[in-house]
Design goal:
CATH superfamily of chain A: Winged helix-like DNA-binding domain superfamily/Winged helix DNA-binding domain
Order of helices and strands of chain A: HHHEHHEEH
Strand order of the largest sheet of chain A: 1-3-2
Number of strands of chain A: 3
CATH class of chain A: Mainly Alpha
CATH architecture of chain A: Orthogonal Bundle
Radius of gyration of chain A: 20 Å
Oligomer: homodimer
Distance between the termini of chain A: 46 Å
CATH topology of chain A: Arc Repressor Mutant, subunit A
Shape of chain A: elongated
Strand content of chain A: 5-15%
Helix content of chain A: 55-70%
Number of domains of chain A: 1
Largest interface: A-B, 69 and 69 residues
Chain lengths: 120, 120
DNA sequence: TTGACAAATGAATATCTGTTCAACTATAAT
DNA sequence: ATTATAGTTGAACAGATATTCATTTGTCAA
């Protein structure tokens, strides 16, 4: 009957509360996607890359200079961001130019900054 | 002159772009705080805890049942959330009741979900 | 064609982080 | 007092992840 097999090591104390919350909770897949989204921008390097790209389209070398990091590590992170569909790239000669491909991220940044300035 | 000592392994390709972006970029401390905030909600378990607490105040046992996890792991995560000031607790008898202490987080969830439903 | 440079990539390393396990505290009930 | 339960905590472990290093690809210039 209970959806808890053996993972939970205690009995329910407030059954009605638990049932009510369970009814309203999104499914596991939704939480995984949501957490993945925040994990994506929950890294200083990627935060800075996205902020930089929000200001201007840039090639990997430019980004490496702005962030003061190696091209390789930037490239690795750009690959992550590309796979997640938040940045797009365009090749021109030897250089590869990156741009933001998702405006939701900027919105999240704005609220995040608001939160930070509001608290400590 | 350049703020890049030896960390960056390439020369600037578009100096004006780099300079412009550098001027607009927030400082390192801001990025760390921002990334920490997103890291905090960038975990499935913590996401689910916060969602649950947004529905109703709950004790650790209730949460353990809702998430189908051990009390210990829930308690560890609650400690993280407490330290970051997003949840608050209230003791009553043997039980400890947790509530949300930050409405910004819920806002972030909303935009995150919007993004997820919009994309895949 | 050769050399130089931008970028990507795979493997290895180091670090970080979530869960488990065991021990402990505190409160309530018998 | 003793027992049971709610919750916390620290250490250990396992899995994830960011950076480094070495190598490779592709493009431009000489």
């Amino acid at each position: 009957m209970s959806r808890n097999e053996f993972s939970c090591d205690c009995n329910v104390i407030h059954q009605n509360v638990v049932d009510n919350v369970l009814k309203k909770m999104p499914n596991e897949d939704t939480f995984n996607k949501l957490a993945d989204l925040f994990k994506l921008i929950g890294d200083t390097t990627r935060c800075r890359i996205l902020f930089a790209l929000d200001q201007s389209e840039m090639c990997v070398c430019d980004l490496a200079n702005v962030l003061n990091m190696t091209k390789s590590s930037i490239s690795h992170q750009l690959a992550v961001l590309r796979r997640s569909g938040v940045v797009r790239c365009r090749k021109s000669g030897k250089e590869v130019y990156y741009t933001l491909d998702d405006e939701h991220i900027v919105k999240l940044f704005e609220i995040g900054l608001e939160h930070i300035n509001h608290k400590g």
